[in-house]
Amino acid sequence: MRALVAAGAGLAAALALVFAITAVGVPPGETSPRPLHTTVPKHP
User: What is the spatial distance between Cα 12 and Cα 30, in angstroms, rounded to a whole number?
Assistant: First the structure.
């Protein structure tokens, strides 16, 4: 029973965080037109 209460509290906290971020909104800005490229180092 305690596990259900803990799961419910965690779910409520996660939803509160999502709603808070949604209420604040996305910060203004633009994404880079070029994607980030990564390379794999050569093996010796």
Answer: 32
Q: Does the pTM exceed 0.70?
A: no
Q: SS3 helix, strand, coil % of the chain, rounded to 5?
A: 50, 0, 50
Give the tens place of pLDDT for each residue, 11-38.
999 999 999 988 887 667 776 667 776 7
The 3-state DSSP class for residue 24 equals helix
Q: What does the alpha-carbon distance between residue 34 and residue 14 come to, in Å, rounded to a whole number?
A: 33
Instruction: Tell me how far the alpha carbon of residue 19 is from its chain's centroid.
Output: 13
The letter for the amino acid at 42 is K
Query: Residue 28 has what DSSP assignment?
Result: P
